[in-house]
Amino acid sequence: MANLASWAYETAEEPEPTNNNTAEQGKALPDIAENQTAFSHVPEHGFSLFLKKRTKTIHFIRHAEGFHNEANNAYGDDTPCTFSTPGSWEYMDAKLTKVGINQCVIARETLLDGVNPELVVVSPFTRTLQTAHIMFGGKGYPFLVHHLCRERWGKFTCDKLRPKTDIVKDMAPIYAYTDDNIDFDNFGWSSETDELWKETREPPDEVIQRGVDMMKWLASRPETEIAVVAHSSYLKHLFRAFGQQIESSDKQKLHRLSGNAEVRSISLALHHGFYPEGEWEGDTDVFVPTHPSFRKGKWAPTNDQIVQNHVQLQS
Fold first, then answer.
1. Which of 63, 146, 231, 237 is catalytic?
2. What is the pLDDT of residues 140-199, one digit of tens each?
3. Which residue among 19, 58, 166, 188 has the highest number of C-beta atoms inside a 10 angstrom radius?
4. Assigned superfamily of 63-272+298-314
5. Measured between alpha carbons, how far apart are the two ends of the chain, in Å?
């Protein structure tokens, strides 16, 4: 069981102090019980105190420009991608445009300077998978597809997934080209076809609940810096579920609709513990999650190689 040590979670009871720094570094969040308070707040002081290990940095990223965005921008609204519009199905699970690819390269060199996530979480759509790869590929980060951060389903053909086999067939070799591991299955989508998509739009409260469930899942992870590559409507519902009482300029920044390839970073502070699926190891204080992350690959391609890879995908 030694190989599971790096994925161990502490129980609510703090261990006795130890001089074994290596052992301490192997511990990971959360190590607080679900019914314990993990922060200190004195209203008259005007701030709250969290131990650093109770917080995570999450970089939320909207995918770069896709062919559906290009069509909608040219038309002036979402009509080209509405399911009842002739020709709308050509935008199903839309890929990135060349403009979108270039947005990713620019973001990689500017907006993401100093951003070093231990995990990159990606919506299962082709445009998010492409965006994540161009922005983070070849740096040794593990990539994990997660169904909870998919776009709001329904009405628009661009928000319906192609068959899973087709997406994996397109994208797996591109990630492998840069020696990156991507997990399509543990938290991805289980069915071959998109069984969620309907002609009516996903209700707002369901999108919000998916966003909250995603935040709880992120809180259960051992990593302290995570990137999430998702979509505008999904992020809009997630962000607007929070911050109703905050300072007006902060509220505007939090609630503003995300632009293509925009990076919005937040601090996720844990008020109490969240635990993933898993089990305790015997009679010990070691909790082993069912789905450990993975690490692979250090070779970084040049930007030209990345761009060429994705341009070929579109032809």
1. 63
2. 999 999 999 999 999 999 999 999 999 999 999 999 999 999 999 888 988 999 999 999
3. 58
4. Phosphoglycerate mutase-like (3.40.50.1240)
5. 47
